[in-house]
Amino acid sequence: MAANSVARPQVVRAPASAGSGAAKSARGGIDLATPLGLLLAVGGILGGLMAEGGKAQDVAQITAAIIVFCGTLGAVMVTTPLNILLRAARKLPQIFVNPGSNAAGLIEEILEYASKARREGIVSLEQDAGAVQDPFLQKALNLAVDGTDTQQIREIMDREIELLERAGEAEAKVYEAAGGYAPTIGIIGAVLGLIQVMKNLANIDEVGRGIAVAFVATIYGVASANILFLPAANKLKARVQHAIEAKELILEGVIGIAEGMHPKLIRSKLEAYIAAAASPGKSKKRGGED
Fold first, then answer.
1. Nearest-angstrom CA–CA distance, 114 and 253
2. Do the domain assignments include residue 215?
3. Which of 126, 143, 149, 259 gets the most CB atoms within 10 Å of its CB?
4. Whole-model pTM?
5. Which residues form the domain of 146?
6. Distances (CA, A) of 150 to 259, 260, 273
7. d(CA 241, CA 251)
């Protein structure tokens, strides 16, 4: 009776509403680091050029851009299956968007489910699970409500997390591949420019100007690889890591509910993910803890 009197203040009809609100990822905004970083990198390069007496027009060569970017895209298309290439292209806007963190909201929602499960039994969550909009949380809750063994729940949901991680890595590797090819394509562009220079050896003024133009392709290749492609790959990996941590939090919470853990213990277990979401590094090892 004492336990019921303590838990009763938490008897809210919120799980259904929480499923439609709290489970959603907190809306982030523009990730200012990306546009500011691009602006700083490009501005620094052009600023250094002009400080040495050059002009922005010196590196504005449409032919070099065509060679580098079309050549890089072609090489990536040869390397990457088309479906992965298209997925990676759709993920590019994510480098400009901060997904935000809703770890605290997820914890509160899971604790509401845990409190109700302790009061009324885990089967009472059947209707609440149907109202959850997060597919991962909904599936995990349904497995728990159906009486699935906690080890099986962990194996099933870990498999989904693993597939998400593999898909994210495959998409990031598209940009890593572009970062590897672009400098080489830039060198090819420079060589093509030098071939044209050799045709005008009789005119020394044209030779000097032609050599300068030829090396613009190298600049495009090296700069695009190190300012855009490789950083984009790393940021997409960070986005995937963020999503994995949220799913790991959900999984550990549902396992706690299925095991009948007290909500306070579940809170203590899950609050570690708030700190983990704010710090870089590898995700916690899955499948080794309950």
1. 8
2. yes
3. 143
4. 0.78
5. 56-277
6. 7, 11, 20
7. 15
